[in-house]
Amino acid sequence: MTAPSLPAARVTTLELFFDLVFVFTITQTTTVLADDMTLRGLARVMIMLGVILWMYGGYAWLTNATSPNTRFRRTLFLIGMGSFFAMALAVPDAFGSTGWLFGLGYFVVNAVHTGLFLLTGGQSAARALRVLGPSNLISATLVLVGGFLPGYWRYGLWTAALVLFIVTPYLRPIGAFTISPAHFVERHGLVVIIALGESIVAIGVGLSGVHMDARVILVTVLGLTLAYLMWWVYFAGDDSKAEHALANTPPAERARKALAAYGWAHYFLLLGIVVVSAGIKKAAGHAVDHLTVAQALALAGGLAVYLLGEAWFRWILRIGPTRFRVGAAAIALATVPLGIFIGSAQLLALNALIVAMLYAEARRVGVTLPAGLG
């Protein structure tokens, strides 16, 4: 058995490479929603994102405990990356003809994760995995079997796997997992920033083939600014405060708090990014005209989900006021009629809303906003 390594202090370039593959999987869910802006499309995205994010979180916890710094570990890591990539390719039709590939890829991702933890994580990691390992295997089997079954069987089994993910940590203790706050916070922050980059890509995709004029350039700037402001909401200090909050949490409680903040709350942060990106992708080419109700709801609702997820993240770690973000989420939904009238007006309103929220928060805590928002 390979001797365990010390917990990683910084995110390695191999982990960042892994995150790029993972975010491509998220990007594919944006395509699913952009092509099917219905409740059915949203339900499919929510199920797949939950399943995918659970196992990504497993790899983040893995590399937090043991660095992929040997040829053997890197080889297994590559197999996990390849399986995630196969899942990504299957995502657009995962509820159709490629469900088997999604399920098979997920099963392999889970098997590699378990093997790496057992072989390289040391005794504490092995004890911790004995808690979650059986439920991970059952969930992966549900996803695998569901990928080969049609219709409602697939919805049912994949939803059952997601429910099992949610309840297992509360049925069995997870305190045996150790968390290195600096690495853990940096790893998840990188995923958020890469995922936000998807919204910028969505602008370019949405404008493909569109004649460029002053109005289209204005829409492009508004879309880019919205992505920037979403970045600011998360990275204006919450990431560094979160690191201190985790570091000051007793080790026995740290794993559960990390799961709540970087598992459940980040699910809604990433879901919000996916929905906003889908809205931008569809709206970018038509933002000088009216949007459909679904497109306007995607822009407003995605931002609302993102803000609520960030508020929940703050509340879990007690790192800042939340009421401004909850209020802004509600107000964001009120911009839907603007989008139905003209898309650029809704984009402008959403940008103004976030700026107003950030100024209100700054006045509340008595800080000065940097020049980027001045």
Structure description:
The structure is a single chain. The protein is mostly helical and 374 residues long. It folds into two domains: 13-171, no CATH class; 181-373, I/LWEQ domain, CATH 1.20.1410. It has helices at 13-35, 39-65, 71-90, 99-120, 122-148, 151-171, 181-206, 214-235, 238-247, 251-283, 293-317, 323-333, 336-341, 343-365.
Summary tags:
I/LWEQ domain; globular; 2 domains
Helix content: over 70%
Task: State the major sheet.
Answer: none
- Which CATH architecture of the largest domain would you pick? Up-down Bundle
Look at the structure and give the mean pLDDT: 85
Shape: globular
Q: What's the CATH class of the largest domain, please?
A: Mainly Alpha
How many separate domains? Answer: 2
Radius of gyration: 21 Å
Contiguous helical run count:
14
Class derived from helix and strand content: mainly alpha
Distance between the termini: 56 Å
Low-confidence stretches: 1-8
Estimate what percentage of residues fall within beta strands.
under 5%
Number of strands: 0
Topology pattern, helix = H, strand = E: HHHHHHHHHHHHHH
